[in-house]
Design goal:
26% of the residues lie in helices and 29% in strands. By secondary structure, the protein is of the alpha+beta class. α1 packs across α6 and α6 packs antiparallel against α7.
Length: 355
């Protein structure tokens, strides 16, 4: 189903035949309910303890097929040496999660080591160029007139974007902008983030990580004039320069356990099984610089599902066979909000059966 068909399906299941009982529910309210239940759907299918079937992701063929369109395989990025004031700077590296990351599927690390002799680590600068668009520095009077351009691609939200308010709907609109940008640029060119990047908070800002050269500009008058240029800066970073000679999985541990494990010669981090834990927007991967370092992380993950929008024509990007289930969950949600009664109970039973 496209988003308009999902709205029709929600309306059909909500209303008694020819009654128009719930026609006063706005399109934006239905969008909110659908997006909320898409998130619930993904979380239920990912974790085995959050659904009736007690089946998590990849525990059955249906679970695989439910979320397959959201799986990003083998995202690769550098493991960075922590900032100078990190007390564990010599003991770990940081791998920063991608901007659309939601849940991990699998991770492995590229290792540089020398099992036959002395290992000597080397470092090199690996600077990152970013561009930011700060929405607090200007006001969009009409989202239908808003444009972003880099090269030949021009991002437009469409004529019906005028239904959204600049301040009230800013976060909602920026989610749509980010997914449009991600649809048109792959990871080898640019990465896109909203407000948070590498444990730094950029309020009301889109952050673009530039892996190739390009100038980002924005327009408030349908592209007649591009008067807003993204601010650019360089983030200084350091990585280990050793050439990796193996690839291995690691062991995800609790942060309060990792230090005790590091002092245990039988459980400490080793080249074949590095210890790591997650915090903030990154993995903290423990190394032993006398024996090995981690140079890169290869991550497979479930990305955040697309934000659907009736007026912006943004469809659900989960597989087609899941749409009817999401519609039923949405109807449950709305019936509970407006009329908790026998119809809600019936819908709850149907969803439990389908799930």
């Amino acid at each position: 189903m496209n988003i308009k068909e999902m709205h029709v399906a929600v309306g059909t299941e909500m209303n008694k035949i020819n009654s128009a009982l719930f026609e006063n529910i706005l399109e934006q309210e239905v969008d909110f309910a659908i997006n909320n239940n898409i998130q619930r759907f993904v979380k239920q299918r990912y974790g085995k303890d959050s659904n009736l079937k007690r089946k998590g992701f990849e525990m059955s063929e249906k679970r695989i097929d439910d979320l397959r369109s959201l799986v990003v395989s083998n995202y690769v990025n550098k493991a960075y040496i922590p900032v100078s004031y990190d007390p564990d700077i010599t003991e770990k590296v940081n791998f920063y999660l991608p901007g659309d990351y939601m849940f991990a599927v699998a991770s492995r690390f590229k290792i540089a080591s020398n099992e036959c002799g002395t290992f000597t680590h080397t470092t090199i600068a690996n600077n990152i160029n970013i561009s930011v668009l700060d929405f607090s520095s200007f006001a969009v009077t009409n989202w239908a007139n808003f444009r972003i351009k880099n090269g030949s691609y021009v991002l437009s939200l469409g004529t019906q974007a005028d239904r959204y308010n600049y301040t009230e709907d800013l976060t909602y609109i920026t989610r749509v902008i980010l997914q449009k940008l991600r649809d048109n640029y792959n990871f080898s060119q640019y990465e896109f983030y909203w407000e948070n990047y590498r444990d730094v908070y950029y309020p009301n800002q889109i952050i673009v990580v530039n892996k190739i050269a390009g100038v980002w500009v924005a327009s408030l008058n349908s592209g007649v004039n591009y008067t807003i240029t993204f601010a650019t800066s360089t983030l200084n970073n350091t990585v280990y320069n050793n050439v990796s000679n193996s690839s291995t999985s690691g062991k995800l541990v609790q942060e309060d356990d990792v230090f005790a494990m590091q002092s245990d010669p039988f459980n400490k981090t080793i080249p074949s099984f590095p210890l790591f834990f997650a915090s903030g927007y990154k993995y903290n991967i423990y190394i032993d610089r006398n024996i090995f370092v981690v140079t890169d992380c290869i991550l497979s993950y479930i990305r955040a599902p697309r934000t659907v929008s009736f007026y912006l024509s943004q469809d659900c990007d989960l597989p087609e066979h899941t749409h009817s289930e999401i519609v039923s969950m949405t109807v449950n949600y709305l019936l509970e909000a407006v009329q908790a009664g026998e119809r809600y109970k019936t819908h709850q039973e149907i969803v439990a059966t389908n799930e």
